[in-house]
């Protein structure tokens, strides 16, 4: 059933059933396109738990836009990917932007995912371990094992 408001919006004097149906379809498709474009341009990496989820969501929105006749170019997809990064990913954004032609989405996604993995690995290293790695190159759990054993006075 259709609301009387919508019925009065789509009906035109002398219109055939097909013309009315096409008008109804266009009305809803236009609203869908506007909604999807808004979602696409307001998607940010910080809204997702993982980099992968962020990339997949952008790709899904891009595919949905293509399905309603509003195809997103690779360049626009990559630019939205970059513009949606948090400050933590500025380095990757700069690298992607320096390609002669903007990287394909899948290449940019791969670079971003690798950077996310690197950052997660860094975050999992405790500050003590990180400083031990930085100063000695040896994980802190192995520092005691790697240092020469000093004999105590009782052993001498």
Please outline what is shown here.
The chain is mainly α and 156 residues long. The chain contains eight helices and no strands. It has two domains: 4-124; 126-156, no CATH class.
Which characteristics define this entry?
0% strand; disordered C terminus; 2 domains; 67% helix; 156 residues; single chain
Write the layout of secondary structure elements.
Elements: H1 4-10, H2 17-41, H3 51-67, H4 74-83, H5 90-97, H6 105-124, H7 127-136, H8 140-146
Helix pairs in contact: 2-3
Describe the structure.
The protein is built from 8 helices and no strands. It is an all-alpha fold and 156 residues long. It has 2 domains: 121 residues; 31 residues, no CATH class. The C terminus is likely disordered.
Helix content: 55-70%
The topology string of helices and strands comes to HHHHHHHH
Categorize the overall geometry: elongated
The residue ranges in which pLDDT falls below 50 over 5 or more consecutive positions are 132-156
Largest sheet: none
Q: Separation of termini?
A: 97 Å
Tell me the Rg in angstroms.
28 Å
Strand content: under 5%
Structural class: mainly alpha
Query: How many helices in DSSP terms?
Result: 8
Mean pLDDT figure: 76
Total beta strands:
0
Total count of domains: 2
Pfam family, one: Retrotran_gag_2
